[in-house]
Specification:
64% helix, mainly alpha, two-stranded parallel ribbon
């Protein structure tokens, strides 16, 4: 092997080692710092252990999914090597759905609509009655037009609303 090839290979190995060390240090440092703003909850510890080792917090939580969507995402990560037991998987899914999720207004029970969207019992029931009479709600404007529901509350929670899973 030529000396230039040996030097090139050595440089690649050294570069990869530096990236690995730097990447590990970044994850270790940011894992400690980036969790300060995370809400407390039963699934937080396994989430940090299984997800933040590979992903920055912002990457792991930037997408908002319904509970079913988070379940698919966490199952995919487990298939790819995230180490979570089945009970931990359920805890992580519940934690992500509650804190970084969307509520499917076409499937949620009134209590879920109240909690997730900050609606009154009467407003939540109005949504359920509307969808039972008219079928699935398809758009934010349609949801804001449901009689008895505050369009301002709906608009304020737009990022947390889904119309399908």
């Amino acid at each position: 092997m030529k000396l230039s090839h040996v030097i090139a290979v050595a440089a690649l190995v050294l570069g990869a080692a530096c990236l690995a060390i730097t990447g590990f240090a970044t994850v270790a440092v940011s894992s400690g710092n980036q969790t300060d703003g995370l809400p407390e909850g039963k699934g937080k510890a396994p989430f940090l252990r299984a997800c933040v080792g590979c992903h920055e917090i912002e990457v792991a939580t930037r997408s908002r999914y319904t509970e079913a969507g988070w379940r698919r995402m966490v199952d995919t990560m487990v298939e790819r090597g995230a180490e979570l037991s089945e009970p931990e998987t359920a805890d992580v899914v519940a934690y992500l759905a509650k804190n970084f999720g969307k509520t499917n207004v076409n499937q949620a029970a009134p209590a879920q609509l109240e909690e997730a969207l900050g609606l009154t019992e009467k407003e939540a029931q109005a949504i359920v009655s509307y969808r039972e009479q008219n079928g699935d709600i398809k758009t934010l404007d349609q949801l804001k037009g449901v009689p008895g529901v505050s369009p301002d509350k709906i608009q304020a929670k737009a990022a947390a609303i889904a119309f399908r899973d």
